[in-house]
Structure formats: structure tokens, C-alpha cells
UniProtKB/TrEMBL annotation, chain B:
Pfam families: Hydantoinase_B. One of its GO terms (cellular component) is cytosol. This is Hydantoinase B/oxoprolinase family protein. InterPro entries: Hydantoinase_B, Oxoprolinase-like. GO terms for biological process: glutathione metabolic process. Residues 3-526 form the Hydantoinase B/oxoprolinase domain. It comes from Limobrevibacterium gyesilva. GO terms for molecular function: 5-oxoprolinase (ATP-hydrolyzing) activity.
């Protein structure tokens, strides 16, 4: 490596493997993979970095000395919530309103399952302590904060040995004074405890969302803080002097301090990398509108990028926790490569939601699994090569897959191949229906989008799914791990903020500007240490009268000072509503509920370099089932050269991905090492 | 014969269409009762009036939709593309007046193929009292605007004159119009998706698949029922009163299980009463179907096929099937909940592990008054302090999750939002500890609330509900949940318990309402 070369490193810790990717200032990419160490993920990270150094011919110290920044996606917060291993949390809350988080607004999932016990709340009632204080809806004080009652509550929490305390008072979103005073009292009494207040975590109206998010933040705060501090120490000892950035659920990155303060905001840190990659692609001009399609073993994650920006949502569930921080709107469909096919009690073929997981895995893994899965079907149809799955690391057992499929198909009168074809078709249809509902729910028409396909199982289904949705363009990266880490390295520092406008009402440009300016200042303050460019984006959440769902209307292209601003913003809303729901009510004045400001610190873009030119790889042939059996060419992914075109029927395969081209599908390999697929049949009316 | 994979694909597709329609409703409706409390339902019904797919919203609506379609087709035997129909009349396919239903037909090769149906509870439907519930009514004409099946369109265009006529008869015409636009939008969205599905698969494949989907659900339901012990079982549930002096109104279910068939005979139920707890015919059918669906498996499709093993016998003139003209507005909660409870009690002998403790009863209060901060008049429907859910063989009941007719599907709004939008102050809103019935598994707790009324000048309140005498039923030795108790504390020191069926209660500003809502029933001996 030359003198001036610096390195950026992306680290993506998954359930099984820790992927480490280095991109140098020339755009050269080097990857390494280490086993994830669940007890302390930082061990696996260091092991991965050491391996990466070996590949580059560098000692760990030298590697880190040449490293300009590290971006990290972590599943620590998610795992803590899913496995119930969060901190022991205490809650201080307004007297008389102790049960907000457990009442769940009166809702219970699964309407027709009346034999289902409620899950335990994140904080049991005994650790939810009332404090005498009360604000009114306008933020004025009805009952002053009572020091005696506060002291008694904090004493009780001390006795219960809590590691974290959430402070959640009614109406604190518009007046944080009581929460701040209570948090200070906790901090003074319980030194070392992680203390978090609802007015700091999510300053917006609606107590259930705000309290639940704050409680989740308290549950994961100590865990995330402990992990990130350990990692920081290890990296420092190993010679790293640059910044460590953490991937957040909203798709931007933040400093370690900020990631600890809003620890619940790292819940989607892992899957955010793929979406960040889609945003980076949009920025590079590939397509402004993308849907990510990440099909793994048990489920498929879908997210939207619109006009180059990721779509954010105001709330999602992680295990029993509800986190209402702005986060990437990732929809999970319960079907993946390991999904088990079965005949329901109604006698219909079904796929999922049960999954064979990694152990025992699909029948063809030969590890004791007896159930036919999507992967078994793909094997029997010839789409997967039994000898080269996962680069030949796992040989697939065709006999076992066939036996499982034969047994499954018997009551339906189908042989193994017909059953496999049925499973393949059914899982595709489920993806299509799921994608359509998910996109409509978000108010978009999928046809004008491009699909970004990654995850081990995606390539075999993506062309059919795209054709059914009439999506003409699909992008497939060579290696998903690289994609995620590459995405992390191409995102920005971001602070996402939102404020409710007191009552919500007619558009008031003056009030809107003040609120936006305050948020912008807060965002700039949080990024004060950052030297680079700052970009600010503004939008408004709007609705008609008494509707409860708002539509986000960006208004960066409107001049807030212009006399016609309110009318222009209203018209932008009418147009969005009409596009989404078939009608607009132009005789009604829309209501402006929330203002949103996103402040981004722009990190330098990474260079990209043409994939190394290799000789075209040897093309083999394989018999696959597409309506009927036929022999199709199989191209090794690594053997494709830039601008090479592959026409279906064909298969392109690498160690981690296999892509099925149906007749008429056409793929072009581009200079970055991506496959761009034109889908046959997508353009028909 | 269509292949089984296509059948499965289409079953998913039809459910996805219903789900998509529901999403559109949630996002576009105006009224708090629809967009926050989700009091609406979606169904896809075929040209024979058979429910083919539905979205899980309010269970008590869904078994009723096919009856609405049948009543509609009786009046309009022919339809054209672009048509939109409406009805709410309980004596012509409706459940009760507030539930307005919109229908849009889909055609295949020029012939009627499907109906996409949207039923939504209106925040007001005219009549003598605001908000649709009139406990004083002794005839349906005092309950609100009656809409027998009507065609709302002419040549595919909405008739503005008809919409104006409807809007002129309700108290919040702006909200009504907004909600109606959303309902029609959602039904048309369904029609659009059905048309795409028909184009993709063809009418013949779709029709054959519908038959297979219904047959499959029937097979699933029968496979469950056949495991129930054969026999004749009896159960009853008791309403407090009808609000006009008739007390302990009793629903009696005699349920016969024979092989994979279940017959529910309600003929021994009490005669119809003067007040609005009578049920319409469609609502009675729906309540029986709801009880049956609760006792099947959650993954059993809820369509016409699943209900084929179920047979209903009832007699006109009883409280479960009132003669035309009787008031029925309360029936989607009461006596629906008692019909469900009587059936579950009866079948607890046949399938004890499936029978669950009773869910709470509804006791609603609506306040009307003036907000001094804005100078505007308002109506507020109380959904807070929900009653508890019933316990089951699987564990304790859900606290504050509601009643049989909603089972955790109605959301109460944010206290902060309620205080910001209405002159109300929630001094307390918490669990009412110990209100769930004891048992091997305990019923879910109800709520306790102290609500201060801060109107500019006096407010008035109406109540509508039941369950201050009879709590949610304990099952198989579990104890009943505590009944409701609502007490009004006036600033002049006068304290009085509210009855469940009152109109025009004077509520001076500064009054405090103390709500203790009922708990769910326990399951098994404590």
C-alpha cells in the first residue's frame, strides 16, 4: 500500500458471523469474517480486524493506525430486548398513571386468539413508582414536583437494585422541568445508574409511545454503554485514534456518546446497513426509488428508499418493547429460505411462519431436519447446486430433500417436483402480496421502484417477485456482507428530530419556522465537534381534520418566507393524499401536526473501483425446472466481466448468492461488481 | 379443478386485499371512533353472499356482512360497474344504525363476481341523542337515521344530493362526509384489486378457488369440532336491565354438538324488551358466529366455509331477534356479549380447554359541552378505563383489553391528547387491582379512573351499557369479574352512582367522575 492510503472500516456483527470490510482511499475492498462472540461482541470484532490485517499484510496496530474511521452496526440492543436480557429498570412516573406501559392502549394482538396470556411488561408494577407532580396539557404546572414523594420513590428504587431508571411524566414533552429535576435526583442518589427521561428521548405527545420508548431506552442503555465502552477501549489499546461511529435505526451514524444516550435507537443498527447501501446507490444515480429485499433464513426484510431518502417510521416493536424513535421503516415478512412448508389442517399448502432455522435446518442439510423447506424446493428444482452451496462448505443432500417433499406432497396428490414448484410459487406469491400491502401502507406504487436484492435466499425469487409487481429493474450485489458494510461506510452522521406543534392546526409559517430553527440549532449543537459539511432537511407531518395518520410532506424546495408558502405546502399535501388514497379534499384546510428536521454531517464518499478484470469463467450447464425441465447455463459470479450480459434462462452463482434468470430476463454485470437485471414480463400493462 | 397451489396463492391474495382496504380506512377516516378506536370491518363477499375473506378488526361485525349483502341484492338484483351502495337499517341487513355499510360490486365477464364491503361505526347518526346511543328509545325511529339499501351513484358518479340528505341528518356533517369518502375510497380500492386479480387468474380459476378456499375452511373447522364431546349443553347469560324497568334479561343457549356439527338454539331466550338491548337478526347471527370463531383455532380462516358446521335456531320476538320497529342500538355490545357468553358457558362442557372466562361488559359515557379554551362545543366518547379480558387455560386475562365484542381491538386514546383536545383532566387512570375474577388463572383487571370535567358552563352526559350488577362470567369454577361502578361527584357535594342507561345527566363544571370498570372472568378453580 502506498504512503497516502487510508482505510475506512465497516463492521457488521450478525448472529453467526462478524463481517469486517475495509475500503481504502483507492476504493479497493478487502473483507474478513470472524465468528461472532455473543458474550462480548467486541472480542469477535477485534478477531475480525486482526484477520483483516493479515489479508492486507498488516499487524493490527498498523492497520488501525492507517484507519481513518470505523463504522459499526451492532445487534447488542436488539438481542437484549429479544432475549429479555435488558437491564433491571425502575420507572418514576406521574402519580395516578402508573400503568401506562402495561395498559398498551387497550390493544391486544391476534384478535381471534383468546387463549393467549399477556406477556410480562418490561418494568413490573412493583418497580413503577409514582411521584406526586402534574403538568397540564399546555405545560403549565398543576401540581409542583413534591420532593418528599420523589425522595421516597428514589429510595424504593435504590432498595430494588435497579441498574437503570426511566423518568416519564405526563405532558413532559412540552415542559421537561419536572423530569429533569427528578432525573438529577436519581443521578445523585443512584450513582452509576443509567438515567433517561422521556422529554429527552422522544419529546412528542402521546404518553404510551413516549413512555414505552423511554423504558426500552433504559433497558438497553447500560448494555449498549457497557459494550461500546469496552470496544472503544480495546480499539484504543490496539492503536486506533480515529472516530468510531455507530449505525442507528434511522440509517445514519452517530458518535458513541450519542448512541449510548439514545441506546434504543440502535435497535435496527444491524439491518440498517443494507438500507444505507440503497441510499448510497440512489446518491450515485442508480435509481432514486429503491426497495430493499433482504431474504434470509427465517424472514425477509423490506425497506423503501424514496427520492433518494430512506422512509422512516415513528414506531416499531422489538420483542415486547415498543420503540417510537424515528427508524427505518423495515417490514419483516415471515418467510425465508428456511421456512417450512406444510399442509394446514384445512388441507391447503402453506409456507411458514415456522422455520427450520440453522439447526437442524432444511432437510437437505442432512442434520436431522425432516421438514421440507423453501431451500429444499429450490434444490429439487435444480436452482441450487448441491456441491457448491456456501462455496462448497455445506454439501446438500438431494435425497433427503426429495423424501421430505414427497411426503409433503402425497396428501395433495403432488409428486416431489410438483410440490417443490408449488412451494417456490407460493413463497413468491407471499412475498408479492406482502410487498404490495407494505408499499400501499406506505402509500407508494412499487412499479416505479428498483429492487435491491440481497441475503442468501433472495436471488432465486427476486425475478419472479419483481415480474409480478411489474418492477422492471433489480440490482444484485456480489456479496451481501460487503453490501451492508459498504452501506455503513457511505452514510452520514445524522440527528433526526421531531416536535409536535402544540395543538396541531392550520399551517402557521411563523410558528413552523421557529420550531424548525430550534431543532436545527439542537442538531447543529449535537454535531458541533464535526468539521465537515452540514445538511439540513425539513418536513411536516400533515393530515385532514380529525384523521389520525399523518403524511410526511418535505418542504425543502419551498421558501418558508414567501407569501404563498402555506398554500404551496397545503397543495403538496393534497397531491400526496390523492396519490395514496384515490382522493383529495381540496375544500378542507390540512392540519399541520409535527415538524421534522434532520441535520446531517456529510462524511466523505468512498471511492469505488472497477472490479478486477478476470477471464470469463467456465460456463457449466445444469438441468433446472422452469415450467418444464431444461438445461441452462450456469455462470460463476466471479467470472463475469464488466458489461458482460447474461440472458435467461440462466443461473449466476457465487459462494453466497445464486440468481435465477427466467426466460427473457437479461442481466448486465457492472463495473462495481453488481448484477443489474432487467426483468421479463414486468412491463406489461 | 384448480391446483392446490393456486388456491393457496388466491387465499393469501384475497386476505391481502382485505388488509389493504383496512389500512386505507385507518389512514383516511375522520372520526376518533374509526381511526383511533378502529370500529370498522372489511369483508370480501361473493355473488352468493358468502364471506370469502375479511380483515380482523371488530369481530362482532364480520359475521353480519353476508346478511347485509343478501338484503342489498334483494332490493337491487342487478348492478353496474361504478355502483356504490349503502345501508344501515337493522331490519334490512344492518346490525344497528351507527354501523353504516358501503358496498362496491366487482364483475367478471359482465357478471357480478364479488362485493367489497366496508362497515364503519359513525360518530353520530342523527336521532334524539348525540353519538347514536339513545337509552330512552322505545322504537327505532328515536334512534337515528334509517338507511335501507340505497344506490348512492348514478352512472358511476356519487349523487351529491343523496350525500347531502344523509349529511343533513347527522350532527357532524363534515366528519360524516370525510368518513364516507374514506369508506367509499377503501371499497373502491378493494374493487380495483379484485379486478386485477380477476384479470390475472380469470373468472373460472377464481371461482373454483373460492369454492376450494371455503371447503378447506369447513374441513378445518370440522376437524376441530369433531374433537368436542357430543351432547346437548345449556348456558345462559344475564343482562342487568333494558333501562325501562325490565331486569335480569336472560339469554339462553342450548347447544348441541353432534359429530362435527354444532347447533345453537336461542329460542328460550327472554322476549324482546322495550329498551335498546334487543338484537337485530343479522347481529344475532354475527354474535353466534363470533362465539364459534373464538372457540376454533386462531389460524382457522374466518369465512363462510368455517361457519358451515354451525346452525342457528332462533325465534322472532325474543331479545336476540326483535320484530321490526324495536330499538336495537346497543346490540353490537349488548346483548351480543351475552349471546357469546351463553354459548361459551354451554360449550365449556364440550371443550373445557377452549372455553375462556368472560370478557368485560361495555359501559360507555359520552359528554357534551363547551371548551372554554377554544369556545367550541364538543362531544367526547369515553373509551378509557376499559374492562378486563377473560382468563383461559393458557393463562391470566389481559388487563384493560375490553369486551367480548372487541377483544383487544379497540384502542383508547392518549390521556395527553384527550386533555389537549377536550376540557378534561385525568387525575387517575390505572389498573383497578383485584377486579379480575379469581381462578386457576385470574381474569384481567379493569381500570380505575378519576376524571375531572373542566367545561365552560355545565356539561351533559349520556350513558349506554350494562354490567353494574352482573360481572364477566367466571368459567369452570373461576370466579366472576367485579362488575362496573361509575360514580359522579358534583362540586356541590352531591354524589350519585350512574345507571348504565341514562340520558341528559347534568354535569356541572368541576364534577369528577370516578370509574371502576369491571374485571374479566377467572378460569378454573382458584
Amino acid at each position: 500500500m502506498g504512503q497516502a492510503v487510508t482505510i475506512s472500516i465497516g463492521i457488521d456483527v450478525g448472529g453467526t458471523f462478524t463481517d469486517v470490510v475495509a475500503v481504502d482511499s483507492d476504493g479497493a475492498v478487502t473483507t474478513a469474517k470472524a465468528a461472532t462472540t455473543p458474550a462480548d461482541q467486541s472480542e469477535g470484532v477485534i478477531a475480525g480486524l486482526r484477520l483483516l490485517g493479515e489479508r492486507l499484510g498488516l499487524e493490527l496496530g498498523a492497520l488501525l493506525a492507517a484507519t481513518e474511521r470505523i463504522v459499526h452496526g451492532t445487534t447488542v440492543a436488539t438481542n437484549a430486548l429479544l432475549e429479555g436480557k435488558g437491564a433491571r429498570v425502575g420507572l418514576l412516573t406521574t402519580e395516578g398513571h402508573r400503568d401506562v406501559i402495561e395498559m398498551r392502549e387497550g390493544l391486544k394482538p391476534e384478535r381471534y386468539d383468546l387463549r393467549m396470556a399477556p406477556p410480562p411488561p418490561l418494568v413490573p408494577r412493583a418497580r413503577r413508582l409514582p411521584v406526586r407532580e402534574r403538568l397540564r396539557a399546555d405545560g403549565s404546572v398543576e401540581t409542583p414536583l413534591d420532593p418528599t414523594s420523589l425522595a421516597a420513590a428514589v429510595d424504593a428504587l435504590a432498595e430494588q437494585n435497579v441498574d437503570a431508571v426511566a423518568v416519564c411524566f405526563l405532558h413532559a414533552w412540552c415542559n421537561p422541568a419536572h423530569e429533569r429535576a427528578a432525573a438529577a435526583a436519581v443521578q445523585a442518589r443512584l450513582q452509576g445508574a443509567f438515567v433517561t427521561a422521556s422529554s429527552d428521548v422522544l419529546p412528542q405527545i402521546k404518553e404510551f409511545e413516549r413512555f414505552s420508548t423511554t423504558v426500552a431506552n433504559a433497558a438497553v442503555g447500560p448494555v449498549v454503554a457497557g459494550y461500546l465502552r469496552r470496544l472503544q477501549d480495546r480499539l484504543l489499546q490496539a492503536g486506533f485514534g480515529g472516530p468510531l461511529f455507530i449505525m442507528l435505526s434511522h440509517g445514519g451514524v452517530a458518535s458513541v456518546d450519542e448512541a449510548v444516550r439514545l441506546a434504543a435507537g440502535t435497535a435496527l443498527s444491524g439491518p440498517a446497513g443494507g438500507v444505507a447501501a440503497a441510499v448510497a446507490l440512489a446518491r450515485q444515480g442508480t435509481s432514486q426509488d429503491l426497495i430493499t429485499f433482504d431474504m434470509g433464513g427465517t424472514s425477509t426484510d423490506i425497506a423503501l428508499v424514496q427520492a433518494g431518502q430512506p422512509v422512516l417510521t415513528g414506531g416499531r416493536g422489538v420483542g415486547e418493547a415498543r420503540i417510537a424513535l424515528p427508524s427505518l421503516d423495515i417490514v419483516t415478512l415471515g418467510a425465508g429460505g428456511g421456512s417450512i412448508a406444510h399442509v394446514s389442517r384445512a388441507g391447503l399448502l402453506q409456507v411458514g411462519p415456522q422455520s427450520a432455522g440453522a439447526d437442524p435446518g432444511p432437510a437437505c442439510y442432512g442434520a436431522g431436519g425432516r421438514s421440507a423447506t423453501v431451500t429444499d424446493a429450490n434444490l429439487i428444482l435444480g436452482y441450487l447446486d448441491p456441491a457448491s452451496f456456501l462455496g462448497g462448505r455445506r454439501r446438500l443432500d438431494t435425497m433427503a430433500a426429495e423424501a421430505a417433499l414427497t411426503a409433503l406432497g402425497r396428501p395433495l396428490g403432488l409428486d416431489a417436483v410438483a410440490t417443490a414448484a408449488g412451494i417456490h410459487r407460493l413463497v413468491n406469491a407471499r412475498m408479492v402480496d406482502g410487498l404490495r400491502v407494505a408499499t400501499v401502507r406506505r402509500g407508494v406504487d412499487p412499479r416505479r421502484f428498483a429492487l435491491l436484492s440481497f441475503g442468501g435466499a433472495a436471488g432465486l425469487h427476486i425475478a419472479s417477485v419483481a415480474a409480478a409487481l411489474r418492477v422492471a429493474r433489480v440490482l444484485v450485489p456480489l456479496q451481501a456482507a460487503v453490501l451492508s458494510a459498504w452501506g455503513m461506510l457511505n452514510t452520514d452522521l445524522r440527528v433526526e428530530m421531531m416536535r409536535s406543534l402544540a395543538q396541531g392546526g392550520a399551517i402557521d409559517p411563523q410558528a413552523l419556522r421557529i420550531v424548525c430553527d430550534v431543532m436545527e440549532q439542537e442538531g447543529r449543537d449535537r454535531l458541533r465537534w464535526f468539521q465537515g459539511d452540514i445538511q439540513v432537511r425539513r418536513s411536516a407531518d400533515m393530515r385532514y381534520g380529525e384523521q389520525v395518520s399523518e403524511i410526511a410532506v418535505p418542504f425543502d424546495d419551498l421558501d418558508m418566507g414567501a407569501p404563498g408558502f402555506a398554500a404551496a405546502l397545503a397543495e403538496a399535501f393534497h397531491r400526496r393524499h390523492e396519490a395514496l388514497f384515490t382522493y383529495a379534499l381540496r375544500d378542507r384546510a390540512p392540519v399541520l401536526v409535527n415538524a421534522r428536521v434532520s441535520v446531517a454531517g456529510v462524511l466523505p464518499a468512498l471511492a469505488t473501483r472497477a472490479a478486477p478484470l478476470e477471464r470469463p469463467g467456465a460456463v457449466l450447464h445444469r438441468r433446472v425446472h422452469l415450467e418444464s425441465w431444461q438445461s441452462v447455463p450456469v455462470h460463476p459470479f466471479a467470472g463475469l466481466v464488466p458489461e458482460q450480459v447474461v440472458t435467461g434462462p440462466a443461473i449466476v452463482e457465487s459462494d453466497t448468492t445464486t440468481v435465477l434468470f427466467r426466460p427473457g430476463d437479461r442481466g448486465r454485470f457492472d463495473a462495481r461488481g453488481w448484477l443489474e437485471l432487467e426483468v421479463a414480463g414486468a412491463a406489461m400493462a | 379443478m384448480t391446483d392446490p397451489v393456486t388456491v393457496a396463492v388466491l387465499q393469501n391474495r384475497l386476505s391481502a386485499i382485505a388488509e389493504e382496504m383496512g389500512e386505507a380506512m385507518l389512514r383516511t377516516t375522520y372520526s376518533q371512533i374509526l381511526n383511533s378506536s378502529r370500529d370498522f370491518s372489511i369483508g370480501l363477499v361473493d355473488s352468493h353472499g358468502r364471506l370469502v375473506a375479511q380483515a380482523d378488526h371488530i369481530p362482532v361485525h364480520v359475521g353480519a356482512l353476508p346478511w347485509a349483502v343478501l338484503a342489498l341484492m334483494e332490493v337491487f338484483p342487478t348492478q353496474s360497474p361504478g355502483d356504490v351502495f349503502l345501508l344501515n337499517d337493522p331490519y334490512h341487513g344492518g346490525s344497528h344504525l351507527p354501523d353504516l355499510t358501503a358496498f362496491v360490486p366487482s364483475f367478471a365477464e359482465g357478471r357480478l363476481a364479488f362485493w367489497s364491503v366496508v362497515r364503519a361505526h359513525q360518530s353520530d347518526i342523527g336521532g334524539a341523542t348525540m353519538g347514536g346511543y339513545n337509552p330512552g328509545a322505545t322504537e327505532i325511529w328515536q334512534e337515528g337515521l334509517r338507511v335501507p339499501p340505497i344506490r348512492l351513484t348514478e352512472g358511476g358518479m356519487i349523487r351529491d344530493d343523496l350525500v347531502a340528505m344523509l349529511a343533513a341528518n347527522v350532527r357532524h356533517p363534515q366528519d360524516f362526509r370525510g368518513d364516507l369518502a374514506a369508506m367509499i375510497g377503501a371499497a373502491r380500492l378493494g374493487e380495483r384489486r379484485l379486478a386485477q386479480t380477476l384479470a390475472e387468474f380469470g373468472a373460472k380459476v377464481l371461482q373454483e378457488s373460492v369454492e376450494a378456499i371455503l371447503d378447506a375452511a369447513e374441513q378445518h373447522a370440522r376437524a376441530i369440532v369433531v374433537t368436542w364431546m357430543d351432547g346437548a349443553y345449556e348456558g345462559e347469560a344475564v343482562l342487568d336491565d333494558d333501562g325501562h324497568g325490565i331486569e335480569n334479561v336472560t339469554i339462553r343457549a342450548r347447544v348441541t354438538v353432534s359429530g362435527s356439527d354444532v347447533t345453537v338454539d336461542l329460542t328460550q331466550s327472554d322476549p324482546q324488551v322495550q329498551g335498546f338491548v334487543n338484537s337485530s337478526y343479522a347481529n344475532m347471527q354475527s354474535a353466534v358466529a363470533m362465539a364459534f370463531a373464538f372457540l376454533l383455532d386462531p389460524d382457522c380462516a374466518r369465512n363462510a366455509g368455517a361457519f358451515r358446521p354451525l346452525h342457528v335456531v332462533a325465534r322472532e320476538g325474543t331479545v336476540v331477534w326483535a320484530r321490526e320497529g324495536a330499538p336495537v342500538t346497543m346490540c353490537t355490545s349488548h346483548c351480543s356479549n351475552e349471546i357469546v357468553e351463553a354459548i361459551v358457558v354451554a360449550l365449556s362442557g364440550a371443550c373445557p380447554d377452549r372455553a375462556m372466562g368472560g370478557w368485560g361488559r361495555r359501559f360507555r359515557v359520552a359528554f357534551e359541552g363547551r371548551d372554554g379554551r377554544t369556545g367550541r362545543r364538543f362531544i367526547w366518547h369515553m373509551f378509557h378505563a376499559r374492562p378486563g379480558g377473560g382468563a383461559s387455560s393458557a393463562g391470566d386475562g389481559w388487563p384493560t383489553a375490553g369486551e367480548w365484542h372487541s377483544v383487544g381491538g379497540l384502542k383508547f386514546g392518549s390521556v395527553e391528547v384527550a386533555e389537549a383536545r377536550f376540557p378534561l383532566f385525568f387525575e387517575q387512570h390505572e389498573f383497578r387491582l383485584g377486579s379480575g375474577g379469581a381462578g386457576r388463572h385470574c381474569g384481567g383487571d379493569g381500570g380505575e379512573m378519576w376524571l375531572r370535567i373542566e367545561t365552560d358552563g355545565p356539561a351533559t352526559a349520556n350513558t349506554a351499557g350494562d354490567g353494574v350488577r352482573h360481572g364477566a362470567r367466571g368459567m369452570l369454577g373461576g370466579q366472576d369479574g367485579a362488575p362496573h361502578c361509575y360514580v359522579l361527584h358534583r362540586p356541590d357535594g352531591v354524589v350519585r352512582e350512574l345507571r348504565t342507561k341514562e340520558v341528559g345527566i347534568a354535569v356541572p363544571s368541576g364534577s369528577r367522575l370516578h370509574v371502576l370498570s369491571g374485571g374479566g372472568g377467572g378460569w378454573g378453580r382458584p
